[in-house]
Amino acid sequence: MKLITLNTWCGTLYEPLKIFIESHAKDTDIFCFQEVRNGEYINQPKEINERVELYNEMKDILSDFTGYFSEMAPGVGIATFVRNNIKVEDVKSTQILTKEDTSHIKMPSGNSYYPRLMQSTYTENPKLIIHNFHGIPGRLKKDTPERELQTNRLLEIINKSNDPQILVGDFNLDLNTEAITKLENSMRNLIKENGINLTRNSRYKDYQILPFADYIFISKDIEVKNFEVLKDEVSDHLALLLEFK
Question: 6-27, pLDDT tens digit by residue?
Answer without folding.
Answer: 999 999 999 999 999 999 999 9
